[in-house]
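Q: Is it fine to ask for two folds in a single conversation?
A: Yes, each is treated on its own. Send the first.
Q: Here.
A: Result:
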Amino acid sequence: MEWHIGRILRIHIKKRISSSLRGHGVSQETREKIGRANTKPSVDLTCLQCQKHFSVIMAREKTAKYCSRKCRVNSLVGKPGPRLGVKYSDELRSKLSKSHIGKNLGALNHFWKGGVSLTKLNERRIAMRTPRYKLWRRTVMSRDGYKCVWCGAKNGGGYRVRLEVDHIKRWVDFPLLRYNLSNGRTLCRPCHVTTFSNLS
């Protein structure tokens, strides 16, 4: 009689049952019965990509085509997408075009950075490679003692800190102060990141 079925057993009762069954042998016939009950009938198929044989349960016999996710992805390489070649009517194309006008432009776009254009960004990247900028950066760091002016973090003692020189007044907005030593300060990377959110 299985009196414990459907009941929530306390931990000490579970331990007592477990210890009483320890060392209790199960016959080979019983093991085979348990094995057959736990395994679902399978079907052998051939992978369409690598031609390898693989087994799946009978429920997936008609849907399984590949032996792995890798084979499925490799089979899609070079094939057109599901919408390629679909012809839209002129009316639908004009409606789609009109629906996109004025959306995600300028300040409405989530990538908006307040008018920073690619030309200004490229100008800054080029300037950062010049000897004048490198000298300014090195001078600001040596003035601040090669440590963050906000939190005091510095390299040494088993620690490695990424130090950066920050323009107090922005590079884009104040071109005359770009190489002014009083406009620079040394910050560690975590402190420097906090200045990005304060740009507005």
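Q: Second one now.
A: Result:
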Amino acid sequence: MRKTKKALASLAIAGMALTIVPFNAFAESVVPTRLAGTTAAQTAVAIAEQTGWTGTAILAPSASYGMVDALTGGPLASYLKAPILLTGAGVLDADTKAELIKLEVKKVYVTSGTAVISQVVLNELTGMAITVVPLGGVDKYETSVNIAKRMVGVTKVAVANGLQDELSIAAIASAANQPILLTDKDIIPASVSAYLAENPGITTSDVIGGTGVISEAVKAMLPSATRHAGSTAYDTNNQVIKDFDSVLTYSNVYVANGRTGIDALAGAPLAAQTKSAIVLTDGTLPNVATFVRGELIGSSVVTALGGVAVVPEIVRSGVVTGEADLAEAINDLAVKVNGESILIKDYDERVAESKKIYEKQGMKFDTDQGEQALINIKSQLLDRMIEGKLMAQEVKNQNLDPEDSKVKKQEDVIKNSIGDETKFQDTLKQQGMTEPELKNFLSLYSKITADAKVSDSDVQAFYDRNNANYSQPESVTARHILLKTEDEAKAIILQLKAGADFIQLAKDKSIEAGAKESGGDLGTFTKGEMVPEFETAAFTQKVGTFSDVSIKTQFGFHVILVEAHTTAVVPDYFKVKAQVEQDALSQAKDAKFQTYFEDLREKAKVEYFTGYNPPA
């Protein structure tokens, strides 16, 4: 509505024809109670439609690993009057591309480097006659500075170190022409320090988050800094809304998921248009809902950013009423953990995601075996969600920061060991875990096991129990020719004795699947990997010889060629002591955390609703 009035006033003054007003100038004056699509990119498009802005856009990554960079783009989006649209890394999202065309965009500011939004995407934009302005820096700190440098007239900055804290201030900072700068907990990055030094007109700053994420030492180095913080990220969101209550209006209020964050990213400039707050939820009704309810007026609209999977309807409506209607929602509950709800729909969603991954790996759930496996998987997933709730509660109780740089490094190690981002996310889904839950686990594990130690005698005892793990076992490298009958095997042996080539015979005569390509190659194997009859023959046969009698197994009759035989090697204890000590310490930490968590689970109040009780 604001955009419409402004456009009409301009037309009246200029005496221009109504037909030249951009079609988006007359966007709906009342924002719907939910802006959502089936993907994050579609949700961003729905939000963009509400802004009424055309001609310029901000392009941010839809993947979680680029979101921190992108969140600092909210204030620039408001400054440029440019909606935030999303894309994947490798190709320009189809919905986003259609929206760029619809909004007649001629310039796009890209919040991340080509490691996050690829050159292929940038080339596609250029091919659409769109000017690309890259904003990505060498790290997230420099990116936040690059974004800030695009804004003029800046006298105040917000400083954050964590996804949810950026989300909490994004809309407020966007409305105030206030860039968001990123920092480490204990030191201001060089690029941020240089920006502040180059802009003496910046006289005040807002520090978002407690001393667990931004230290007092860093706060002291910022211009006239005021801290806005709570004991958790969601408490910080509560405090930010209360601290900035005097500049907020409540004709519109937005609710977004603080764990995924991506919808709040796109929603920040829309919320800034009406100086509205963004309330963050973890899927449950946040404490700030009661305060916000007291500020609403009769015509206020509370809008969820994203689908019901990220912002449940009972949470959105709970912000309107100030409390969740538990009587109505009781049928939506699977479990309550210390009073916090696990919703049936969230549980069903995790089951569906896990099933997809298992099915990709060949699991068939329409068989008797598959049906039993699904029962076990469902039980394990519900246990994992209960454990996730307990860990989230402990992280809050102990005032831990799951966005800490040490946690990020630990997560990166896990990602690298699994492979790429897609494999990492698939693994999480298969295990019934979300990325925030993994971060909660890592931060809690680090805290609980920080004082775990092992003595020299503990290390020696660990080695004595597990020395096989540090030894090179005896192994054989071999090929074989598999035949149906003993007579066929005897015929092969005669041909070999006459000088026939073993590999060619394996390709021509072996009934083993794949022998035509492999030439009967079995690679290198250790004891226990082959059936006993085959193993005994292979490990007693001389290197470079083929068996002069066939070996009968359940598979048929084998003729074996031994190509190499390596004896077992037990390394000197002191040569592997460093690795053994590390492994022994890991085991000690695991045992300590398991004891701690079992006690935590034992003391927890876990209420199962009908149909979700654990198996007897």
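Q: Anything structural to flag on that second result?
A: Two points. The first strand starts at residue 34 and ends at 35. The two ends are 59 Å apart (CA to CA).
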